[in-house]
């Protein structure tokens, strides 16, 4: 039964208020970085609350658009390797008799047109992603183009929902990085960028992401006057830069460049044992991201990243403090991310957030069950290292728990039995873990608690944005000297 929404039904006016006074320091010189990509600068990156925020009514020109039609195309090798692998592993009797006489492109097109036949182990709800891993991650459309399916009121309702449950949504989206890190080629790309492999670098990168996403939750991202629109164009141009960089390397160079010299992974053996005891083993040809390697940010990467932004929210809202939400709210949240994906260059056919809420929830379930859980049993030392850097970077400014507590909480949400991880926790960490369950599952039922969580989160983010140079230098020094 649908539950009563606590989101007001009227059209919100966040897109039309007057511009607030600038009360925060500009961080445009700090070279902060987005989760999607490698190198970028934050412009006008002060962190605003919904009450403070408005459209920037200045005449500043939008970021110069560079992402159209001039990306490198390095996909021929990917197609050749994929077709070769399929010839070796698929039953040759199932392939057309003259298959070997076709060009590689014809062979690939045939396989992609018959995904249901040749790749039945991929969950039906996710088979659309396989062709997407061979498509450039940006389809090249204008960042100002509005799709015909866009419902502006629903998009705004999604923004309102995100602001009303801001703290819980932030925590869920950060938690989703634990699952995205299990995709090995994506993790290698992240390491190769060298922008989050220490706590201080992770602090800058993910603070940058939170700021950008906050802009997207507050402004009209199609309006060229807004910071949200400028952020969209900036992110797309950064994706292009990373695609060019990746395509200039071969796989051996990528593997060598994604090594971490000073790895910190104290629980590697414990985690592997727990995951292997709790997680299912993947079947052959079950996950497109493990069956073949591609060297570029592609449509499949963009689609699975969308899943990271909405997945835990639409499937487990109460575990992250989102109580008394109705299906319309969750559907509006997904509609918002469908629109943001469209703006970031995701083709409609590969947009993870298209379709009904039930369809999206099924995709998330299948992603977790058939891709993420089997991948957890194969996590590498680099996975734990990057997770530790992420969480220690967050603790520079958020009153959050240790990475071990949060990892255990994530595994509890997925119903994984992590006995070894639980035993590794100190008494204090076990108490924090139990408190986290109580806070999200019970205390957050009270609107006043949600309001306090939102206020504390926003205050902490605003303080982090305005860290003085001496504070940043101290954090960087501590990070460089010791990851502990």
From TrEMBL:
Keywords: Membrane, Transmembrane, Transmembrane helix. The keyword Transmembrane helix applies. The chain crosses the membrane at residues 432-453. Residues 1-22 are annotated as: Disordered. Residues 1-14 have a biased composition (Polar residues). PANTHER family: GH11867P. This is Uncharacterized protein LOC106744542. It comes from Dinoponera quadriceps (South American ant).
């Amino acid at each position: 039964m649908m539950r009563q929404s606590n989101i007001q039904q009227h059209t919100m006016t966040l897109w039309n208020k007057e511009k607030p006074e600038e009360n925060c320091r500009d961080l445009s010189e700090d070279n902060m970085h987005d989760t999607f990509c490698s190198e970028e600068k934050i412009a006008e990156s002060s962190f605003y609350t919904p009450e403070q925020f408005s459209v920037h009514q200045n005449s500043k020109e939008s970021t110069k658009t560079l992402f159209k039609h001039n990306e490198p195309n390095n996909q021929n090798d990917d197609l050749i390797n994929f077709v070769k692998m399929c010839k070796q592993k698929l039953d040759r009797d199932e392939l057309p008799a003259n298959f070997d006489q076709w060009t590689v492109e014809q062979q690939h097109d045939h396989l992609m047109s018959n995904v249901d036949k040749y790749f039945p182990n991929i969950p039906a709800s996710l088979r659309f992603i396989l062709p997407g891993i061979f498509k450039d991650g940006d389809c090249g459309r204008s960042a100002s183009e509005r799709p015909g399916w866009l419902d502006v009121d629903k998009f705004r309702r999604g923004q309102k929902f995100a602001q009303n449950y801001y703290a819980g949504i932030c925590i869920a989206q950060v938690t989703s990085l634990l699952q995205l890190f299990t995709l090995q080629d994506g993790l290698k790309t992240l390491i190769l960028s060298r922008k989050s492999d220490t706590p201080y670098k992770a602090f800058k990168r993910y603070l940058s992401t939170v700021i950008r996403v906050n802009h997207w939750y507050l402004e009209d991202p199609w309006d060229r006057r807004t910071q949200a629109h400028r952020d969209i164009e900036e992110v797309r141009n950064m994706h292009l830069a990373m695609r060019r960089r990746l395509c200039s390397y071969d796989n051996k160079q990528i593997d060598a460049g994604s090594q971490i010299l000073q790895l910190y992974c104290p629980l590697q053996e414990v985690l592997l044992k727990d995951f292997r005891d709790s997680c299912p083993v993947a079947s052959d040809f079950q996950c497109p991201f493990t069956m073949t390697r591609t060297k570029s940010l592609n449509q499949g990467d963009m689609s699975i990243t969308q899943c990271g932004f909405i997945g835990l929210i639409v499937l487990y809202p109460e575990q992250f403090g989102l109580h008394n939400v109705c299906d319309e709210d969750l559907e509006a949240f997904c509609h918002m991310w469908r629109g943001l994906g469209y703006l970031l260059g995701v083709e409609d056919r590969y947009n993870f957030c298209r379709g009904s809420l039930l369809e999206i929830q099924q995709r998330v379930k299948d992603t977790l069950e058939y891709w993420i859980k089997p991948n957890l049993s194969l996590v590498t030392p680099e996975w734990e290292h990057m997770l530790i850097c992420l969480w220690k970077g967050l603790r520079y400014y958020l009153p959050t728990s240790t990475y071990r507590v949060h990892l255990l909480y994530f595994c509890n949400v997925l119903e994984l039995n992590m006995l070894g991880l639980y035993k590794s926790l100190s008494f204090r960490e076990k108490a924090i873990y139990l408190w986290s369950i109580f806070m999200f599952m019970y205390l957050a039922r009270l609107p006043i608690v949600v309001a306090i969580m939102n206020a504390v989160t926003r205050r902490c983010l605003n303080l982090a944005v305005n860290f003085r140079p001496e504070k940043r230098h101290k954090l960087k020094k501590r990070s460089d000297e010791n990851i502990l």
